[in-house]
Design goal:
With 173 residues, the chain is α+β, with helices and mostly antiparallel strands. It has three helices and nine strands; from the N terminus they run βββββααβαβββ.
Length: 173
């Protein structure tokens, strides 16, 4: 069995939709992505990292102003929330190693699908802040499972099968 997925080692944290977290020590953050996006942040040499699991590209576009909701549901506010938290932890933002994952589209959605919008939101929000993306694996038609080790910045990714979940038709999955 792969040691990364074994019961031994750092504690495992599963991030669901609309969740994000800053890690100041060893952990394994698991995120299952379809059209959603995860961005990982790591400060080399300090054991500090963060990630989130966002569903939609822009809070302004998808949420009424009088509504609440987790800032981690939206790519733009998730990035801003993480950068603020990392700043409070005294992380120099210009030294962060940043990686972007997810944003799959079904074949019927084409280039205007929510996955593509999520990816665009991630890259444009990071660019507005003057931050460079070190690596990415985005788009396509297949979901991904990532395991992020915030203490080292390593990300392990598995591309998921296109086979629909048993009992579901392609339109439902």
């Amino acid at each position: 069995m792969n040691a990364l997925f074994s019961l031994e080692g750092p504690p495992v944290v599963h991030l669901g939709i609309g969740e994000g977290r800053v890690f100041e020590g060893p952990a394994r953050a698991h995120v299952l992505l379809g059209s959603c996006v995860a961005v990982t942040f790591h400060l080399p040499g300090h054991g500090l990292g963060a990630t989130f699991h966002a569903l939609l590209p822009s809070r302004e576009e998808y949420l009424r102003k009088d509504s609440g909701g987790s800032p981690f549901r939206f790519v733009d506010t998730a990035i801003e929330t993480m950068l603020a938290a990392l700043s409070r932890a005294r992380a120099p933002l210009d030294r962060l190693e940043i990686k972007v994952f997810g944003g799959a589209n079904s074949l019927v959605q084409g280039e205007f699908g929510i996955g593509q919008k999520n990816v665009r939101a991630a890259f444009s929000t990071l660019a507005r802040r003057g931050l460079r993306v070190a690596a990415s694996n985005v788009g396509g038609t297949r979901g991904r499972k990532i395991v992020f080790l915030p203490a080292t910045g390593e990300v392990f990714m598995k591309t998921l099968s296109e086979t629909p979940v048993r009992g579901m038709t392609s339109a439902q999955s």
